[in-house]
Protein 1
Amino acid sequence: MLNEFRCKVCNRLLAKLTDESVVETKCPRCKTLTSYEKGEIIVREIKNESIERIRNFNSRREENG
Ligand SMILES: [Zn+2]
Protein backbone atom coordinates (compact mmCIF):
# COMPACT_ATOMS: atom_id res chain seq x y z
CA MET A 1 0.00 0.00 0.00
CA LEU A 2 1.56 3.29 -1.11
CA ASN A 3 1.00 6.73 0.41
CA GLU A 4 1.08 9.90 -1.65
CA PHE A 5 3.99 12.14 -0.67
CA ARG A 6 2.80 15.63 -1.57
CA CYS A 7 4.43 19.03 -1.10
CA LYS A 8 2.66 20.81 1.76
CA VAL A 9 3.09 24.19 0.06
CA CYS A 10 1.92 23.62 -3.51
CA ASN A 11 0.43 20.13 -3.19
CA ARG A 12 2.55 18.71 -6.01
CA LEU A 13 2.82 14.93 -5.94
CA LEU A 14 6.49 14.18 -5.19
CA ALA A 15 6.42 10.39 -4.84
CA LYS A 16 4.40 7.39 -3.80
CA LEU A 17 5.96 5.66 -0.81
CA THR A 18 5.38 2.91 1.71
CA ASP A 19 4.82 3.59 5.41
CA GLU A 20 8.44 2.60 6.12
CA SER A 21 10.01 4.94 3.55
CA VAL A 22 12.38 7.74 4.58
CA VAL A 23 12.96 10.31 1.82
CA GLU A 24 14.15 13.91 1.62
CA THR A 25 13.47 15.92 -1.52
CA LYS A 26 13.16 19.42 -2.87
CA CYS A 27 9.89 20.25 -4.54
CA PRO A 28 10.59 20.98 -8.24
CA ARG A 29 7.76 23.52 -8.37
CA CYS A 30 8.17 25.68 -5.24
CA LYS A 31 11.65 24.57 -4.02
CA THR A 32 10.46 23.68 -0.52
CA LEU A 33 12.73 21.10 1.12
CA THR A 34 10.48 18.37 2.43
CA SER A 35 11.09 15.01 4.05
CA TYR A 36 8.93 11.95 4.43
CA GLU A 37 9.50 9.69 7.40
CA LYS A 38 7.32 6.68 8.02
CA GLY A 39 4.08 8.23 6.83
CA GLU A 40 4.75 11.74 8.12
CA ILE A 41 5.48 14.73 5.86
CA ILE A 42 7.83 17.29 7.43
CA VAL A 43 8.74 20.69 5.93
CA ARG A 44 12.50 21.24 6.41
CA GLU A 45 13.20 24.51 4.61
CA ILE A 46 10.82 26.90 2.97
CA LYS A 47 11.25 29.82 0.61
CA ASN A 48 9.78 33.20 1.54
CA GLU A 49 7.40 33.17 -1.41
CA SER A 50 6.24 29.72 -0.33
CA ILE A 51 5.31 30.98 3.15
CA GLU A 52 2.81 33.33 1.51
CA ARG A 53 1.28 30.35 -0.28
CA ILE A 54 0.90 28.48 3.00
CA ARG A 55 -0.79 31.48 4.60
CA ASN A 56 -3.24 31.64 1.72
CA PHE A 57 -3.85 27.91 1.97
CA ASN A 58 -4.48 28.07 5.74
CA SER A 59 -6.87 31.01 5.47
CA ARG A 60 -8.86 29.11 2.83
CA ARG A 61 -9.15 26.13 5.17
CA GLU A 62 -10.45 28.32 7.99
CA GLU A 63 -13.10 29.79 5.71
CA ASN A 64 -14.24 26.31 4.84
CA GLY A 65 -14.65 25.48 8.51
ZN1 LIG B 1 5.92 22.51 -3.71
Protein 2
Amino acid sequence: MKYFMYCRKSSEGDEKQALSLQSQERELRDYAKENKLEIVKMYSEAKSARIPGKRDQFKAMLEGLDARKADAIICWKTDRLSRNPEEAGKIMQRITDNVIKEIRTPQKSIGTEDANDILMGVEFGSNSQFSKDLSYNTKRGIREKINLGQWPGLAPHFYVNYGLKNKERNIIPDPNIAEYYPKIVDEIVSRKLNVIRALDQLNKWGVKNRYNRSFALSSLHRILRDPIYYGLLRYSEYPEKIGAWEPLISKKKWLLLQDVLDDKSKPIKTRWEYPYNKLVHCARCGLFITGYTKVKKSGKAYSYYSCTKRHGNCGNPPIKLNDMENLVTPFISKIKFKGSILDELKKRTLEKLENEFGHEIAKREEISKSIAQATLKLDKILTMRLDEEITKEQYQQKKDEINSELDNLKEVEIDLRFNRDEIRSQLELYFEKVKGLYDVFTNGDSEDKRKIIYEITDRIELDNKKLRWNFKKPYLALIEVNSCPENINWGGWWDSNPRPLLPQRSALTS
Ligand SMILES: [Zn+2]
Protein backbone atom coordinates (compact mmCIF):
# COMPACT_ATOMS: atom_id res chain seq x y z
CA MET A 1 0.00 0.00 0.00
CA LYS A 2 1.03 3.58 -0.63
CA TYR A 3 0.40 6.10 2.09
CA PHE A 4 -0.37 9.78 2.11
CA MET A 5 0.69 11.40 5.32
CA TYR A 6 -1.67 14.01 6.67
CA CYS A 7 -0.80 16.42 9.47
CA ARG A 8 -2.99 19.15 10.77
CA LYS A 9 -3.06 21.53 13.68
CA SER A 10 -5.67 24.17 14.05
CA SER A 11 -4.41 27.72 13.92
CA GLU A 12 -7.24 28.62 16.24
CA GLY A 13 -6.88 28.50 20.00
CA ASP A 14 -9.11 25.48 20.48
CA GLU A 15 -6.47 22.80 19.97
CA LYS A 16 -3.77 23.59 22.44
CA GLN A 17 -3.51 19.94 23.40
CA ALA A 18 -2.80 18.69 19.86
CA LEU A 19 0.75 17.96 18.79
CA SER A 20 2.50 20.62 16.76
CA LEU A 21 2.82 20.01 13.02
CA GLN A 22 6.53 19.26 13.33
CA SER A 23 5.91 16.75 16.14
CA GLN A 24 3.14 15.03 14.22
CA GLU A 25 5.40 14.78 11.18
CA ARG A 26 8.33 13.43 13.18
CA GLU A 27 6.23 10.88 15.06
CA LEU A 28 4.59 9.65 11.87
CA ARG A 29 7.87 9.33 9.97
CA ASP A 30 9.35 7.32 12.83
CA TYR A 31 6.26 5.16 12.99
CA ALA A 32 6.29 4.58 9.21
CA LYS A 33 9.93 3.63 9.31
CA GLU A 34 9.40 1.11 12.09
CA ASN A 35 6.47 -0.44 10.31
CA LYS A 36 7.96 -0.22 6.82
CA LEU A 37 5.15 1.90 5.42
CA GLU A 38 5.72 3.68 2.12
CA ILE A 39 4.82 7.37 2.32
CA VAL A 40 4.48 8.88 -1.16
CA LYS A 41 3.51 12.38 -0.20
CA MET A 42 2.94 14.55 2.83
CA TYR A 43 0.11 17.02 3.28
CA SER A 44 0.34 19.43 6.15
CA GLU A 45 -1.69 22.45 7.13
CA ALA A 46 -2.47 24.74 10.01
CA LYS A 47 -6.24 24.87 9.64
CA SER A 48 -9.30 24.09 11.69
CA ALA A 49 -11.33 21.09 10.54
CA ARG A 50 -14.58 22.18 12.06
CA ILE A 51 -15.94 23.88 9.00
CA PRO A 52 -15.84 21.97 5.71
CA GLY A 53 -14.15 23.31 2.59
CA LYS A 54 -11.47 25.32 4.39
CA ARG A 55 -8.50 23.02 3.87
CA ASP A 56 -6.64 23.07 0.54
CA GLN A 57 -4.22 20.31 1.56
CA PHE A 58 -7.04 18.03 2.61
CA LYS A 59 -8.74 18.64 -0.71
CA ALA A 60 -5.52 18.00 -2.64
CA MET A 61 -5.05 14.76 -0.73
CA LEU A 62 -8.54 13.58 -1.70
CA GLU A 63 -7.78 14.37 -5.33
CA GLY A 64 -4.57 12.40 -5.06
CA LEU A 65 -6.50 9.45 -3.64
CA ASP A 66 -9.10 9.66 -6.39
CA ALA A 67 -6.26 9.66 -8.93
CA ARG A 68 -5.00 6.46 -7.22
CA LYS A 69 -1.65 7.98 -6.33
CA ALA A 70 -2.03 6.36 -2.93
CA ASP A 71 -4.55 4.05 -1.31
CA ALA A 72 -4.04 4.68 2.38
CA ILE A 73 -3.57 7.52 4.84
CA ILE A 74 -1.40 7.85 7.86
CA CYS A 75 -2.17 10.52 10.44
CA TRP A 76 -1.63 11.16 14.15
CA LYS A 77 -5.28 10.73 15.15
CA THR A 78 -8.46 10.36 13.13
CA ASP A 79 -9.66 13.74 14.33
CA ARG A 80 -6.82 15.25 12.29
CA LEU A 81 -8.75 14.22 9.17
CA SER A 82 -12.05 15.81 9.98
CA ARG A 83 -14.07 17.38 12.72
CA ASN A 84 -17.14 17.95 10.62
CA PRO A 85 -19.56 15.38 9.20
CA GLU A 86 -19.26 16.51 5.61
CA GLU A 87 -15.55 15.89 5.26
CA ALA A 88 -15.70 12.84 7.50
CA GLY A 89 -18.30 11.62 5.01
CA LYS A 90 -15.88 12.17 2.12
CA ILE A 91 -13.34 9.96 3.82
CA MET A 92 -15.92 7.34 4.64
CA GLN A 93 -17.27 7.28 1.13
CA ARG A 94 -13.79 6.55 -0.16
CA ILE A 95 -13.36 3.79 2.39
CA THR A 96 -16.66 2.28 1.30
CA ASP A 97 -15.60 2.57 -2.35
CA ASN A 98 -12.24 1.01 -1.48
CA VAL A 99 -10.35 4.06 -2.70
CA ILE A 100 -8.92 4.25 0.80
CA LYS A 101 -7.90 0.81 1.98
CA GLU A 102 -6.54 1.81 5.32
CA ILE A 103 -6.15 4.71 7.66
CA ARG A 104 -3.22 4.19 9.93
CA THR A 105 -2.58 6.04 13.15
CA PRO A 106 0.16 5.18 15.63
CA GLN A 107 -2.66 4.07 17.94
CA LYS A 108 -4.39 1.76 15.49
CA SER A 109 -5.16 0.81 11.97
CA ILE A 110 -8.56 1.47 10.54
CA GLY A 111 -9.85 -0.56 7.65
CA THR A 112 -13.12 -0.78 5.84
CA GLU A 113 -14.78 -2.71 8.63
CA ASP A 114 -14.42 -0.04 11.30
CA ALA A 115 -14.57 3.11 9.30
CA ASN A 116 -17.00 4.49 11.83
CA ASP A 117 -14.11 5.55 13.96
CA ILE A 118 -13.54 8.34 11.50
CA LEU A 119 -16.76 9.74 12.72
CA MET A 120 -15.44 9.80 16.24
CA GLY A 121 -13.39 12.72 15.05
CA VAL A 122 -16.53 14.59 14.26
CA GLU A 123 -17.08 16.93 17.10
CA PHE A 124 -20.75 17.63 16.88
CA GLY A 125 -24.02 15.86 16.62
CA SER A 126 -23.14 12.26 16.00
CA ASN A 127 -25.16 9.67 17.85
CA SER A 128 -24.98 5.93 17.97
CA GLN A 129 -27.29 5.51 15.00
CA PHE A 130 -25.20 7.95 13.09
CA SER A 131 -22.36 5.52 12.95
CA LYS A 132 -24.40 2.34 12.64
CA ASP A 133 -25.54 2.98 9.14
CA LEU A 134 -22.71 3.22 6.68
CA SER A 135 -24.70 3.53 3.50
CA TYR A 136 -25.17 6.99 2.15
CA ASN A 137 -28.89 7.04 1.74
CA THR A 138 -31.21 9.95 2.06
CA LYS A 139 -32.27 8.97 5.52
CA ARG A 140 -28.76 9.26 6.67
CA GLY A 141 -28.38 12.67 5.14
CA ILE A 142 -31.51 13.78 6.91
CA ARG A 143 -30.34 12.39 10.20
CA GLU A 144 -27.05 14.19 9.86
CA LYS A 145 -28.80 17.44 9.21
CA ILE A 146 -31.10 16.94 12.15
CA ASN A 147 -28.15 16.20 14.39
CA LEU A 148 -26.73 19.51 13.34
CA GLY A 149 -30.05 21.18 14.09
CA GLN A 150 -30.48 22.04 10.43
CA TRP A 151 -33.77 21.86 8.62
CA PRO A 152 -33.44 18.87 6.27
CA GLY A 153 -35.91 19.83 3.57
CA LEU A 154 -37.30 22.68 1.54
CA ALA A 155 -37.51 25.81 3.66
CA PRO A 156 -41.00 26.54 4.97
CA HIS A 157 -42.61 29.78 3.87
CA PHE A 158 -41.07 32.90 5.43
CA TYR A 159 -37.72 31.10 5.34
CA VAL A 160 -35.34 30.34 2.48
CA ASN A 161 -32.73 27.63 2.10
CA TYR A 162 -29.27 28.97 2.50
CA GLY A 163 -25.77 27.61 1.94
CA LEU A 164 -24.23 26.12 -1.17
CA LYS A 165 -23.08 22.76 0.11
CA ASN A 166 -25.42 20.13 1.35
CA LYS A 167 -24.27 19.81 4.94
CA GLU A 168 -23.96 23.56 5.34
CA ARG A 169 -27.44 24.19 4.07
CA ASN A 170 -29.86 25.48 6.61
CA ILE A 171 -32.73 27.91 6.55
CA ILE A 172 -32.65 31.65 7.17
CA PRO A 173 -35.56 34.11 7.40
CA ASP A 174 -36.76 35.08 3.94
CA PRO A 175 -35.43 38.62 3.55
CA ASN A 176 -38.47 39.57 1.48
CA ILE A 177 -41.31 38.52 3.74
CA ALA A 178 -39.98 37.22 7.09
CA GLU A 179 -40.96 40.45 8.87
CA TYR A 180 -44.61 39.74 8.08
CA TYR A 181 -44.72 36.50 10.02
CA PRO A 182 -44.48 38.04 13.52
CA LYS A 183 -46.71 40.86 12.25
CA ILE A 184 -49.53 38.59 11.18
CA VAL A 185 -49.22 36.59 14.41
CA ASP A 186 -49.58 39.84 16.37
CA GLU A 187 -52.65 40.73 14.36
CA ILE A 188 -54.22 37.34 14.90
CA VAL A 189 -53.52 37.33 18.61
CA SER A 190 -54.48 40.91 19.36
CA ARG A 191 -57.52 41.08 17.07
CA LYS A 192 -58.60 37.44 17.42
CA LEU A 193 -58.55 36.89 13.67
CA ASN A 194 -59.36 33.53 12.17
CA VAL A 195 -57.30 32.13 9.31
CA ILE A 196 -59.53 33.62 6.62
CA ARG A 197 -59.17 37.09 8.09
CA ALA A 198 -55.47 36.57 8.54
CA LEU A 199 -55.18 35.72 4.86
CA ASP A 200 -57.11 38.88 3.98
CA GLN A 201 -54.68 40.88 6.02
CA LEU A 202 -51.62 39.31 4.37
CA ASN A 203 -53.11 40.04 0.97
CA LYS A 204 -53.81 43.62 2.02
CA TRP A 205 -50.12 43.94 2.85
CA GLY A 206 -49.29 42.45 -0.52
CA VAL A 207 -47.37 39.52 0.95
CA LYS A 208 -46.58 36.87 -1.66
CA ASN A 209 -45.19 33.37 -1.24
CA ARG A 210 -42.01 32.12 -2.87
CA TYR A 211 -43.84 31.49 -6.12
CA ASN A 212 -44.94 35.11 -6.11
CA ARG A 213 -48.54 34.15 -5.47
CA SER A 214 -50.93 34.80 -2.63
CA PHE A 215 -50.92 32.20 0.10
CA ALA A 216 -53.49 29.46 -0.14
CA LEU A 217 -55.80 29.21 2.83
CA SER A 218 -54.76 25.65 3.63
CA SER A 219 -51.11 26.55 3.38
CA LEU A 220 -51.54 29.51 5.74
CA HIS A 221 -53.35 27.21 8.12
CA ARG A 222 -50.39 24.83 8.14
CA ILE A 223 -47.94 27.69 8.55
CA LEU A 224 -49.72 29.01 11.62
CA ARG A 225 -49.70 25.56 13.20
CA ASP A 226 -46.05 24.82 12.46
CA PRO A 227 -43.68 25.03 15.47
CA ILE A 228 -40.72 25.54 13.14
CA TYR A 229 -41.31 29.29 13.44
CA TYR A 230 -40.32 29.36 17.08
CA GLY A 231 -37.30 27.21 16.33
CA LEU A 232 -38.49 23.69 17.05
CA LEU A 233 -37.07 20.99 14.82
CA ARG A 234 -39.88 18.46 14.49
CA TYR A 235 -39.31 16.15 11.58
CA SER A 236 -40.92 12.81 10.91
CA GLU A 237 -40.17 10.25 13.63
CA TYR A 238 -37.02 11.96 14.87
CA PRO A 239 -36.97 13.25 18.42
CA GLU A 240 -37.75 16.93 18.67
CA LYS A 241 -34.97 19.38 19.31
CA ILE A 242 -34.16 23.03 19.07
CA GLY A 243 -33.15 23.91 15.54
CA ALA A 244 -30.06 25.90 14.64
CA TRP A 245 -31.93 28.59 12.77
CA GLU A 246 -33.25 31.99 13.73
CA PRO A 247 -36.77 31.70 15.11
CA LEU A 248 -39.34 34.26 13.97
CA ILE A 249 -41.31 34.34 17.22
CA SER A 250 -40.97 33.08 20.77
CA LYS A 251 -42.44 29.81 21.94
CA LYS A 252 -44.69 31.72 24.31
CA LYS A 253 -46.13 33.77 21.48
CA TRP A 254 -46.57 30.67 19.35
CA LEU A 255 -48.53 28.93 22.10
CA LEU A 256 -50.72 32.00 22.44
CA LEU A 257 -51.34 31.85 18.70
CA GLN A 258 -52.42 28.21 18.99
CA ASP A 259 -54.85 29.20 21.74
CA VAL A 260 -56.41 31.86 19.55
CA LEU A 261 -56.62 29.51 16.55
CA ASP A 262 -58.18 26.81 18.72
CA ASP A 263 -60.94 28.98 20.06
CA LYS A 264 -63.92 28.34 17.81
CA SER A 265 -66.11 30.78 19.70
CA LYS A 266 -64.22 33.84 18.59
CA PRO A 267 -66.70 36.46 17.46
CA ILE A 268 -65.08 37.40 14.17
CA LYS A 269 -66.09 34.41 12.10
CA THR A 270 -68.84 35.66 9.86
CA ARG A 271 -69.51 38.93 8.09
CA TRP A 272 -70.88 41.36 10.60
CA GLU A 273 -73.77 43.35 9.47
CA TYR A 274 -74.32 44.33 13.06
CA PRO A 275 -71.10 45.65 14.49
CA TYR A 276 -72.23 45.28 18.09
CA ASN A 277 -73.34 41.68 17.81
CA LYS A 278 -71.89 39.56 20.54
CA LEU A 279 -69.98 42.49 21.96
CA VAL A 280 -72.67 43.76 24.27
CA HIS A 281 -74.34 41.77 27.02
CA CYS A 282 -77.80 42.20 28.39
CA ALA A 283 -77.31 43.66 31.88
CA ARG A 284 -80.41 41.89 33.14
CA CYS A 285 -79.97 38.29 32.03
CA GLY A 286 -76.39 38.19 30.78
CA LEU A 287 -77.20 37.03 27.23
CA PHE A 288 -75.67 38.67 24.19
CA ILE A 289 -77.42 41.58 22.56
CA THR A 290 -77.99 40.86 18.86
CA GLY A 291 -79.01 43.02 15.96
CA TYR A 292 -82.06 42.68 13.77
CA THR A 293 -83.67 44.75 11.07
CA LYS A 294 -87.34 45.70 10.74
CA VAL A 295 -88.79 46.98 7.50
CA LYS A 296 -91.59 49.51 8.13
CA LYS A 297 -94.68 49.80 5.94
CA SER A 298 -93.06 52.86 4.35
CA GLY A 299 -90.34 50.54 3.08
CA LYS A 300 -87.75 52.10 5.36
CA ALA A 301 -85.58 49.66 7.31
CA TYR A 302 -84.54 50.17 10.93
CA SER A 303 -81.88 48.21 12.71
CA TYR A 304 -82.22 47.44 16.39
CA TYR A 305 -80.23 45.70 19.06
CA SER A 306 -81.98 43.61 21.61
CA CYS A 307 -81.54 40.88 24.15
CA THR A 308 -82.41 37.54 22.58
CA LYS A 309 -84.58 36.83 25.64
CA ARG A 310 -83.92 33.15 25.35
CA HIS A 311 -84.06 32.91 29.12
CA GLY A 312 -87.46 34.52 29.21
CA ASN A 313 -88.48 38.12 28.89
CA CYS A 314 -86.05 40.15 30.94
CA GLY A 315 -87.80 43.37 29.99
CA ASN A 316 -84.68 45.04 28.61
CA PRO A 317 -85.93 47.26 25.77
CA PRO A 318 -84.32 47.20 22.29
CA ILE A 319 -82.22 50.11 21.10
CA LYS A 320 -81.84 51.57 17.62
CA LEU A 321 -78.50 51.19 15.83
CA ASN A 322 -78.09 54.97 15.64
CA ASP A 323 -78.76 55.37 19.34
CA MET A 324 -76.23 52.68 20.05
CA GLU A 325 -73.64 54.50 17.97
CA ASN A 326 -74.38 57.69 19.84
CA LEU A 327 -73.76 55.88 23.09
CA VAL A 328 -70.51 54.31 22.01
CA THR A 329 -68.79 57.24 20.30
CA PRO A 330 -68.35 59.31 23.48
CA PHE A 331 -66.58 56.39 25.12
CA ILE A 332 -64.16 56.05 22.29
CA SER A 333 -63.57 59.78 22.21
CA LYS A 334 -62.39 59.60 25.80
CA ILE A 335 -59.36 57.71 24.59
CA LYS A 336 -57.96 60.64 22.72
CA PHE A 337 -54.72 62.14 23.79
CA LYS A 338 -52.55 65.10 23.46
CA GLY A 339 -49.40 63.92 21.71
CA SER A 340 -47.28 65.30 24.54
CA ILE A 341 -49.00 63.18 27.18
CA LEU A 342 -48.69 60.08 25.09
CA ASP A 343 -45.01 60.71 24.38
CA GLU A 344 -44.24 61.26 28.04
CA LEU A 345 -46.15 58.14 28.94
CA LYS A 346 -44.31 56.13 26.36
CA LYS A 347 -40.96 57.41 27.53
CA ARG A 348 -41.65 56.49 31.14
CA THR A 349 -42.99 53.11 30.28
CA LEU A 350 -39.98 52.23 28.19
CA GLU A 351 -37.67 53.43 30.96
CA LYS A 352 -39.46 51.16 33.35
CA LEU A 353 -39.08 48.34 30.89
CA GLU A 354 -35.32 48.90 30.66
CA ASN A 355 -34.98 48.83 34.45
CA GLU A 356 -36.95 45.67 34.81
CA PHE A 357 -34.82 43.94 32.23
CA GLY A 358 -31.54 44.70 33.90
CA HIS A 359 -31.59 41.36 35.65
CA GLU A 360 -32.40 39.58 32.45
CA ILE A 361 -29.25 40.86 30.83
CA ALA A 362 -27.26 39.36 33.68
CA LYS A 363 -29.18 36.13 33.33
CA ARG A 364 -28.44 36.01 29.63
CA GLU A 365 -24.72 36.39 30.24
CA GLU A 366 -24.89 33.58 32.74
CA ILE A 367 -26.62 31.35 30.18
CA SER A 368 -24.07 32.17 27.49
CA LYS A 369 -21.35 31.17 29.92
CA SER A 370 -23.07 27.88 30.69
CA ILE A 371 -23.46 27.15 26.98
CA ALA A 372 -19.76 27.78 26.41
CA GLN A 373 -18.91 25.52 29.34
CA ALA A 374 -21.11 22.68 28.12
CA THR A 375 -19.59 22.97 24.66
CA LEU A 376 -16.13 22.72 26.18
CA LYS A 377 -17.23 19.64 28.11
CA LEU A 378 -18.24 18.00 24.83
CA ASP A 379 -14.75 18.62 23.47
CA LYS A 380 -13.21 17.22 26.59
CA ILE A 381 -15.12 13.93 26.61
CA LEU A 382 -14.40 13.49 22.93
CA THR A 383 -10.71 13.80 23.62
CA MET A 384 -11.10 11.30 26.46
CA ARG A 385 -12.88 8.94 24.11
CA LEU A 386 -10.25 9.30 21.41
CA ASP A 387 -7.55 8.60 23.96
CA GLU A 388 -9.67 5.65 25.04
CA GLU A 389 -9.88 6.84 28.62
CA ILE A 390 -13.63 6.14 28.52
CA THR A 391 -15.67 3.47 26.77
CA LYS A 392 -17.97 4.09 23.82
CA GLU A 393 -20.99 3.66 26.12
CA GLN A 394 -19.67 6.05 28.73
CA TYR A 395 -18.94 8.56 26.01
CA GLN A 396 -22.40 8.19 24.50
CA GLN A 397 -24.15 8.55 27.84
CA LYS A 398 -22.14 11.58 28.86
CA LYS A 399 -22.64 13.19 25.46
CA ASP A 400 -26.40 12.70 25.58
CA GLU A 401 -26.47 14.30 29.02
CA ILE A 402 -24.50 17.32 27.89
CA ASN A 403 -26.51 17.71 24.70
CA SER A 404 -29.81 17.70 26.52
CA GLU A 405 -28.45 20.27 28.96
CA LEU A 406 -27.38 22.35 25.94
CA ASP A 407 -30.84 22.12 24.39
CA ASN A 408 -32.40 23.39 27.59
CA LEU A 409 -29.98 26.26 27.88
CA LYS A 410 -30.57 27.29 24.28
CA GLU A 411 -34.30 27.30 24.79
CA VAL A 412 -33.99 29.56 27.82
CA GLU A 413 -31.67 31.82 25.85
CA ILE A 414 -34.21 32.24 23.07
CA ASP A 415 -37.01 32.94 25.52
CA LEU A 416 -34.99 35.58 27.30
CA ARG A 417 -34.11 37.31 24.06
CA PHE A 418 -37.70 37.40 22.92
CA ASN A 419 -39.32 38.35 26.18
CA ARG A 420 -37.86 41.81 26.20
CA ASP A 421 -38.26 42.49 22.48
CA GLU A 422 -41.79 41.24 22.57
CA ILE A 423 -42.94 43.43 25.42
CA ARG A 424 -41.28 46.40 23.83
CA SER A 425 -42.96 45.84 20.49
CA GLN A 426 -46.29 45.23 22.20
CA LEU A 427 -45.92 48.57 23.89
CA GLU A 428 -44.97 50.36 20.71
CA LEU A 429 -47.90 48.77 18.96
CA TYR A 430 -50.19 49.75 21.74
CA PHE A 431 -49.14 53.38 21.70
CA GLU A 432 -49.48 53.51 17.93
CA LYS A 433 -52.96 52.10 18.16
CA VAL A 434 -54.03 54.48 20.85
CA LYS A 435 -52.89 57.50 18.87
CA GLY A 436 -55.36 57.01 16.07
CA LEU A 437 -58.14 55.25 17.90
CA TYR A 438 -60.78 57.94 17.71
CA ASP A 439 -60.13 58.71 14.05
CA VAL A 440 -60.31 55.09 13.05
CA PHE A 441 -63.48 54.66 15.01
CA THR A 442 -65.32 57.65 13.60
CA ASN A 443 -64.22 57.04 10.00
CA GLY A 444 -63.96 53.29 9.93
CA ASP A 445 -66.43 50.70 8.76
CA SER A 446 -68.38 48.53 11.14
CA GLU A 447 -65.68 45.95 11.26
CA ASP A 448 -63.08 48.51 12.30
CA LYS A 449 -65.40 49.65 15.04
CA ARG A 450 -65.91 46.15 16.19
CA LYS A 451 -62.23 45.50 16.38
CA ILE A 452 -61.53 48.63 18.35
CA ILE A 453 -64.27 47.91 20.83
CA TYR A 454 -63.08 44.38 21.17
CA GLU A 455 -59.57 45.63 21.77
CA ILE A 456 -60.33 48.21 24.42
CA THR A 457 -63.12 46.65 26.44
CA ASP A 458 -63.67 43.79 28.79
CA ARG A 459 -67.42 43.80 28.96
CA ILE A 460 -70.16 46.10 27.80
CA GLU A 461 -73.64 45.82 29.19
CA LEU A 462 -76.85 47.30 27.86
CA ASP A 463 -79.56 48.29 30.30
CA ASN A 464 -82.60 50.38 29.47
CA LYS A 465 -80.94 51.95 26.41
CA LYS A 466 -77.86 52.84 28.40
CA LEU A 467 -74.41 51.26 28.24
CA ARG A 468 -72.20 50.18 31.09
CA TRP A 469 -68.73 49.96 29.78
CA ASN A 470 -65.54 48.39 31.11
CA PHE A 471 -62.29 49.39 29.56
CA LYS A 472 -59.37 47.05 29.62
CA LYS A 473 -56.77 48.00 32.15
CA PRO A 474 -54.23 49.89 30.03
CA TYR A 475 -56.90 51.94 28.32
CA LEU A 476 -58.63 52.67 31.57
CA ALA A 477 -55.33 53.85 32.99
CA LEU A 478 -54.78 56.16 30.03
CA ILE A 479 -58.20 57.65 30.45
CA GLU A 480 -57.42 58.36 34.09
CA VAL A 481 -54.11 59.92 33.16
CA ASN A 482 -55.76 61.94 30.45
CA SER A 483 -58.30 63.44 32.77
CA CYS A 484 -55.56 64.30 35.24
CA PRO A 485 -52.35 64.85 33.23
CA GLU A 486 -50.19 66.00 36.17
CA ASN A 487 -50.79 62.66 37.87
CA ILE A 488 -48.76 60.68 35.38
CA ASN A 489 -46.68 58.99 38.02
CA TRP A 490 -48.30 55.63 38.37
CA GLY A 491 -46.74 52.37 37.40
CA GLY A 492 -47.28 48.75 36.76
CA TRP A 493 -50.44 48.88 34.71
CA TRP A 494 -49.15 47.23 31.64
CA ASP A 495 -49.40 43.55 31.44
CA SER A 496 -46.98 41.37 29.55
CA ASN A 497 -49.82 39.05 28.83
CA PRO A 498 -52.63 41.36 27.77
CA ARG A 499 -55.65 39.13 28.02
CA PRO A 500 -59.11 40.35 28.87
CA LEU A 501 -59.33 41.11 32.55
CA LEU A 502 -62.24 40.40 34.79
CA PRO A 503 -65.02 42.95 34.55
CA GLN A 504 -64.45 45.89 36.81
CA ARG A 505 -67.58 47.25 38.35
CA SER A 506 -65.75 50.40 39.29
CA ALA A 507 -65.17 51.29 35.65
CA LEU A 508 -66.93 54.08 33.85
CA THR A 509 -70.66 54.02 33.49
CA SER A 510 -72.82 56.23 31.38
ZN1 LIG B 1 -81.94 40.06 28.63
